[in-house]
Amino acid sequence: MIRTVLLAGRAGLHLRAASRIAEAAATLPTQVTVRTLDRKPVPADSVLSLLGLGALCGTELILEAYGDGAAESLERLAEFFAVDPDAVGA
Amino acid sequence: MTTNISGVLEPRSVRVHEIATDRESAIHRCADVLEEIGAVHPAYREAMLDREWAMSTYVGEGVAIPHGLDMSRELVRRDSLAVLRFPGGVDWEGGRVTVCVAIAARGDGHVALLSQLALILLDPRKAEILRSATDPEAIVAMLEADDEE
After folding, report:
1. Domain ranges of chain B
2. According to the CATH classification, is domain B5-148 in 3.30.70.260?
3. Of A3, A15, A60, B91, which has the highest C-beta tally within 10 A?
4. CATH code of the domain containing A47
5. For chain B, what is the mean pLDDT?
6. Strands across the sheet with B80-92, in order?
7. Which of residues 26-85 of B touch A (CB under 8 A)?
8. Across residues B56-85, what is the average pLDDT?
């Protein structure tokens, strides 16, 4: 199952954002991978792998998960990429 | 042009024999070096500490990457990195740190540097050079070679 999301964070996928995403990914029922159009998929629960994507604001990210709970996992994780962690009130 | 590491790291900002009693003093040392090389306004130090207390900058592999906050980027005079080795280790939230890579960068350069650095840390050979090199030139050479890959 695949879900595409555009990175909302104006400052890009920085360490605080990546840490929150990796922490959330570790609690999901299935493993989720993330990739950009030009990079290989990486595990969403690895902070370093997420940083390695070098995703800037507006970058298209492709999330993938399979098996039981895949839809729920993608739904929950996509939300993190679609919200700007530096926005007031976020 | 993409910001790359060797473009923002000078040999004089690599320090291989640092000592710090705790996380706060390690960050002060990082700020000292960034200030010495003229990379940041003195107020950047406070932003680095604020950022650290908001959420640990430990990233794994014995490495922390202290940096300021988005709003402190105007305090950055010139995009720069500083590499400080603490051979005795420093207790950090998240793990024990033997290397700090301090980042001062504006705009999208920050994420570009984070990305390159993360890929280096995911490469066991390069991560080991960063942790164990006793010669600043060895670290600079590894990072320059990385830019060419």
Report:
1. 5-148
2. no
3. A15
4. 3.30.1340.10
5. 94
6. B14-15, B80-92, B95-104, B63-64, B58-60
7. 54-55, 57, 59-61, 65, 67, 70
8. 94
Is the CB of B115 less than 8 angstroms away from the CB of A51? yes
Domain that holds residue A56: 2-81
- Average pLDDT over every residue of A75-88: 92
With beta carbons less than 8 A apart as the criterion, state whether B77 and B38 touch: yes
Measured CB to CB, residues of chain A less than 8 Å from chain B are 11-16, 19, 47-56, 86
Give the pLDDT of residue B24: 98
| pLDDT for the residue numbered A89 | 59
Number of domain units in chain A: 1
User: Does residue A89 lie within any of the structural domains?
Assistant: no
Task: Check if the beta carbon of residue A42 is closer than 8 Å to that of residue A33.
Answer: yes
Tell me which amino acid residue B94 is. G
